[in-house]
Amino acid sequence: MAKILVVDDSPTQLTNLVKIVQGQGHEVVTASNGMEGVEMARQEQPDLILMDVVMPELNGFQATRKITRDPSTESIPVILVTTKDQETDKVWGERQGAFGYVVKPPVEAELVAMINKALG
Q1: 57: CATH
Q2: In this predicted structure, what is the pLDDT of residue 57?
Q3: Exposed e or buried b for every residue in 83-104, given b needs 16+ CB within 10 A?
């Protein structure tokens, strides 16, 4: 199965996302903020990244932009998983290079469908 990087500063959200991803049989690596997420993306070269938006230091939009514009990580799809549910946030996320956008708390079936679509 795939290796998926989950980036979220909330331990509760991180645990929930990891549970969903592992439930689908995927390997999971985690990061607790955007800066760590960018570093982990470079080191681990995951097949997919689930990225929170509202985080300290480097937010998910900034981290996604760094990942999608870096030649070593640009091919890794990023799905933003966030409480920000405005259409402008979704459009901004897509402009940063995000593959998809899921609003928290994620409906498991919706998130799994998005993951499967991103993994092709």
Answers
A1: 3.40.50.2300
A2: 87
A3: ebeeeebbebbeebbbbbbbbb
